[in-house]
Amino acid sequence: xxxxxxxxxxxxxxxxxxxxxxxxxxxxxxxxxxxxxxxxxxxxxxxxxxxxxxxxxxxxxxxxxxxxxxxxxxxxxxxxxxxxxxxxxxxxxxxxxxxxxxxxxxxxxxxxxxxxxxxxxxxxxxxxxxxxxxxxxxxxxxxxxxxxxxxxxxxxxxxxxxxxxxxxxxxxxxxxxxxxxxxxxxxxxxxxxxxxxxxxxxxxxxxxxxxxxxxxxxxxxxxxxxxxxxxxxxxxxxxxxxxxxxxxxxxxxxxxxxxxxxxxxxxxxxxxxxxxxxxxxxxxxxxxxxxxxxxxxxxxxxxxxxxxxxxxxxxxxxxxxx
Length: 322
Hints:
It contains 11 helices and 14 strands. Helices cover 43% and strands 22% of the residues.
């Protein structure tokens, strides 16, 4: 068998992405007949069909599915190399597929995303907010934001965006009704609102203070895979939530939530940007990653962190004085 022409793999990937030969031709600036002829030649070279053609749609054969990941990598590498060769003078463009937790998008990136869309009008954002961990390569995602520890995967690369500090919070109404815990062990006598693990199992709460460590599984009033929902339940007096300080800070400032056990610290929650481990990154992915990093190192996030630390220190001082 002769060596497969990379351009034919690129054409095949674009046909699958666009769903038709004509739209792929328009995207690549080629006649439909040329695209169809080159894909047919690729099929002849491989000795099997890659696409099943009907009057309504194209569908992939088993071989087509197997070849698609390689074809997409060729297409992405070609696009990234072109952008690099032009010294990034060309405006980043194309579809950018991103997966992230819904709470993270609405609670942390609510200003970043519209600003990014306005700055890069040639990039078409496609954002998946489902809680599942998508298959970046198999589902053709450019980037995903993931919280917590990462699984070992040689096909992916990751960049740490931020370590989000966490705390314990409850509403004044709940504390008036049930009392304020003065030590971690007292949490075992309270209602708690817990994040749901990926496997549906209870996750121990861990608190640390100057070399001391407490770990336990307090009674759960509710579990959910949405930090924002747990915060809202805490606002309604349902129990004590362990949540990101970033999510809780506005409600602490307004007096709707009270930080608890402020001299004990839950482990921080790392936020990662994960992407296919290619040597060359498409320009659209690179500028989005740059925007994320600028947000977490920018003045708004730094000011929010400083405000929360001030609140913690005030609460510690009050506890000592008492």
